[in-house]
Design goal:
This protein has 346 residues and is an alpha/beta fold. Helix 8 packs across helix 11. The termini are far apart. The strands form two sheets. A nine-stranded mixed sheet has the order 14-13-12-11-7-10-9-8-15. The chain has a six-stranded parallel sheet with strand order 3-2-1-4-5-6, sandwiched between helices. The radius of gyration is 20 Å and the shape is globular. Helix 4 links the parallel strand 4 and strand 5.
Length: 346
């Protein structure tokens, strides 16, 4: 029989319930062994017979647990990760890794001391549109990329009563969607020379950022990362312009919506984007358009890579160094927005 890893999931709110639990359960070699939640009935309604504990310490002290997944509110990520590592567990933390670079450095140091793997759940690396774009760039279909516009817009005009939208450390859209867009940009192009950020509160009653527009400056390339809460319809996802062609993509990867509706990862048609992107070449008077069907998305690949890293060695699917780079970019973005100045990435 193939070895398996027992997993404890800390937190059963939206992220734990919709993303982590079904992905863990549908990754061969992983077994959801326990859930930390104050609402056992909610967990048991979805997972009859599951071991549910109210306190994280009970899961961390369980000798049968190999991997702890932290899907709790952002301000407690660092403390929970360090506690799990101290008990000798491998750890996955939902993004953002922590709420500060200092906290992130402490968690990475704790993982080094424990000899355990710590990683951040950057599932958007396995979005269909991002995988397709990465393939196009690798194949040279766009030529040298000169402009990269990455949007993650929503239409949520009413401020919800939840911790993500309160004035707390690690709350707001910059810490919610910023880690995704920053991580994707860094995966494609590496660290920029400088960042200029405009982070704002636009909706009536907002107490945490609900808008950002961020420019990453490279020697020739310009990267624009954008998220708003008042964008209706099928908004832009990518507009990428290179010396050979442009790639335009609207609409979001379908996996989150499928998970919300109870879809099973890996079932027929999983991750296939219903709104494929368009590759455009030529001048305005002779443009040629090609529909790009693209690569199916697959979030399970994150957990499969984490399983392999634990069982067979090798790097985590998102390394500590990559996690620290995103945290640094988040803080530089805040500094830039507060000072209204470009911040050199140092």
């Amino acid at each position: 029989m193939q070895p398996h890893l027992n997993v404890a999931l800390v937190g059963y709110g939206f992220v734990g319930k919709v993303f982590h639990a079904p992905l863990i359960e549908n990754t061969p070699g992983l077994r959801l062994h326990a859930v930390v939640s104050s609402d056992a009935r909610k967990v048991l309604a979805d997972h009859p017979g599951m071991r549910v504990v109210a306190e994280p310490e009970a899961a961390f002290a369980d000798p049968e647990i190999d991997l702890v997944v932290i899907a709790a509110p952002n301000p407690v990520h660092a403390a929970l990760a360090s506690a799990a590592l101290a008990h000798g567990k491998h750890v996955v933390v939902d993004k953002p890794f922590t709420v500060s670079v200092h906290q992130a450095q402490q968690v990475v140091a704790d993982a080094d001391r424990a000899g355990r793997i710590v990683s951040v759940f950057q599932n958007r690396r396995w979005d269909a549109d991002f995988l397709t774009l990465r393939k196009l760039i690798a194949e040279g279909a766009l030529g040298e990329v000169m402009e990269f516009h990455s949007h993650f817009d929503r239409y949520r005009p009413v401020v919800a009563d939840r911790w993500r939208e309160r004035d707390e450390p690690g709350s707001g859209l910059w810490y919610d969607l910023g880690p995704h867009l920053l991580d994707q940009a860094l995966q494609l192009f590496g660290m920029p020379e400088a960042v200029f950020a405009d982070i704002a509160l636009q909706r009536d009653g907002a107490s945490a950022a609900d808008y950002f527009n961020v420019l990453l400056r490279y020697p020739k390339l310009r990267v624009v990362l954008h998220a708003g809460s008042l964008v209706a319809g099928q908004p832009l996802r990518f507009a990428v312009h290179g010396t050979r062609a442009s790639y335009l993509k609207h609409g979001l990867d379908p996996q989150e919506d499928a998970l919300r509706k109870g879809g099973i990862p890996g079932q027929a048609g999983w991750g296939i984007d219903p709104l494929p992107g368009v590759l455009r070449t030529g001048a305005a008077d002779s443009v040629e358009t090609e529909i790009v069907q693209g690569v199916p998305g697959d979030y399970v690949r994150y957990y499969a890579a984490m399983r392999d890293a634990i069982l067979h060695g090798g790097p985590a699917p998102v390394t500590p160094q990559e996690a620290l780079q995103v945290m640094a970019m988040l803080e530089w973005g805040l500094e830039s927005s507060a000072t209204r100045r470009e911040v050199v990435c140092r």
